[in-house]
UniProtKB/TrEMBL annotation, chain A:
Localization per Swiss-Prot or TrEMBL: Cell membrane
GO cellular component, one term: plasma membrane
Name under which the protein is recorded: Spermidine/putrescine transport system permease protein
Residue stretches making up the ABC transmembrane type-1 domain: 65-272
Keyword Membrane: yes
Entry keyword set: Cell membrane, Membrane, Transmembrane, Transmembrane helix, Transport
Transmembrane segments: 7-29, 69-90, 102-124, 152-171, 204-224, 253-273
Protein topology in the membrane: Multi-pass membrane protein
UniProtKB/TrEMBL annotation, chain B:
Entries under SUPFAM superfamilies matching the protein: MOP-like, P-loop containing nucleoside triphosphate hydrolases
Record domain ABC transporter: where: 5-235
GO cellular component: ATP-binding cassette (ABC) transporter complex
Gene Ontology molecular-function annotations: ATP binding; ATP hydrolysis activity; transmembrane transporter activity
SMART domains associated with the record: AAA (SM00382)
Keywords for the protein's UniProt record, in alphabetical order: ATP-binding, Nucleotide-binding, Transport
Protein name listed in UniProt: Spermidine/putrescine transport system ATP-binding protein
Species: Roseovarius marisflavi
Record-level GO BP terms: quaternary ammonium group transport
InterPro entries (alphabetical): AAA+_ATPase (IPR003593), ABC_SmlMolc_Importer (IPR050093), ABC_transporter-like_ATP-bd (IPR003439), ABC_transporter-like_CS (IPR017871), Mo/tungstate-bd_C_term_dom (IPR008995), P-loop_NTPase (IPR027417), Transp-assoc_OB_typ2 (IPR013611)
A Pfam family matched in the record: TOBE_2
Amino acid sequence: MQAGTRLGFILLLTPLLLWLTLLIIIPHIDMLLLSLRERVGVGQYATSPANYLTFFGEPLYLRTFMRTAVMSVLATVITLLIAFPVSFYIAKIAKGRVQSSLFLLCLVPFWVSELVRTFGWMILLRETGLISTLLQYLGLASGPVEMLYNDAAMMVGLVYTSMLFMVVPLVTTLESLDDAVIEAGYDLGGSGISVLREIIIPHATPGIVSGSIVVFMLSLGNYLTPTMLGGKDSLWFTELIYSQFIVRFNWELGAAFGFMLLILSSVIVWGMLRVTGQTLEKTMG
Amino acid sequence: MTPDLECSALTKRFDQSLAVDDVSFSVPPGSFFSILGPSGCGKTTIMRMIAGFLPPTSGDIRIKGKSVLDVPPNKRPVNMVFQHLALFPMMNIADNIGYGLRRKGMAKTEITRKVGEVLDRIGLPDIANRKVDELSGGQKQRVAIARCMVLEPDVLLLDEPLGALDLKLREHMKIELKALQAAFDTTFVYITHDQSEALVMSDQIAVMNAGRFEQIGTAQELYYRPDTAFVAGFVGDSNRWAGKVETVEGGTLALRTDGGLLMRATAHERPLATGDRAEIFVRPEAIRLARSDADLAHFDNRLSGQVTSLLFNGAASRILVQSTQGGPEIEVTLPQSGEFSDVGRGNAVHIGWSGDQSNCFALRGAA
């Protein structure tokens, strides 16, 4: 019996360990080694921090890096601001069939690939697209309006792509809030704003934080949306990594970039948890 | 004196169904008023209308003489203790109790003082910094009441707050609630489906059924002189027979049950005439048990029969007696003086009761 339990434990643990080592630990160690390597001659390499120095020495890299971070945070905040009322409506106000169909509506766009969804936005926003044509038809614009290839278009795409990942944890935490607790807040003299601030938001904090972490990471690591909807001025850090690996064939610098991105997201997530007083176990468990 | 709470012709209609149907009552200051009724009778709807969470379809609610229909729940001088208490789990006890005071914009030092005072009053002075889930059921109960009482409301509403507690604690909290009500000297309106909670604590009880008040009165009035058959059946236990009135002589009537038993009862000024279909209620403790018929000579209802089972439940033990004259089994309270401690199944016994102790009602809808 004892041996049987042990065997079961090992069998259950094996896929997890394989997954962790093969897909996460080994590639990252390899990437780390790669990023610390400098090519000194044909087929000759030396260990040095040269790639990281290049990163910090080149303003374009550093600026794109910071811009990506700030824009991702912004995308997260906008997603939260839109998703919170939506989730509150789904979790607390809508009942029965309306509730489940609204939830389904949030899910439906995710049945098609991200690529198709992004093309959908392009159809709407491009010069010959729906919105542009409609504006001209209504006489609100004299000529074709180009709404693609700028930061705003990219932000719309990022928020749209991540909405579901914010709505799901928010609906889950808001649903666990007893209606009577909200009513008690009103009954004891609270106004709508104070009930929101003192009761609903504190209760929803784990959901807000876990949703924000997921959305932030998705935005930071997004490649498709910034590439397709963002313009030449809306360079995303993942595009730099892509070009180092694929276009320039400079794997060493690409690996260093990859590591910088990992550090960035870790620092921001850690900061977010510290500020809200949450722990990773509490928000993700 | 103006009543603390007054409802007149209060009605609430949900789409098709009438949840509360023309209910009027008034609660004098400082009293403990209960609304007792089976689940779904509309008592929670009344409470939510008083608290302000539901607008009445028609009728008026006055608190200290002023109509509050246009006052939103957060401005009404009533507070509510919710069924599951609804303490704020994200705050500690002091913040929970201080929540309403903070909303009033009271100074911090003043809040701390008031919270301390009310914690002393509920006998839990050291729990200010505890978390909600560190408290026991009874402590949470007291904190929920303190959270409302610190705001000094004109009326405190309690929505079956003892429902979630275990039996022993519930018995204890009944006494404690009554004592807290006396200590705070505030009007309590308490809704429950548990008759013992209502009977033990209340000054006045309204028995509610299907959206209407059947009777308002003291516990004794409801128990001994119910106005309707519903009240007689709902409050306390009763033996219940349906039958036909055979004779009416002055205040006394004779009733033949469908099982063939002839019973004498006092009419208690209820309109019953010869030939009416009626129901008769006799409480198990109103029936005297005896070993010989002679001991029961002074009762106008006497039966003899056999014990069919013994329902032992300590002080509330009963026996079921099958009369030799037929009819359904009769529940009789077993006296606890020890005299009948050897009574068991199959024993022959004599039972009797005074017709004055029974209550008769005309059967509704019967010719």
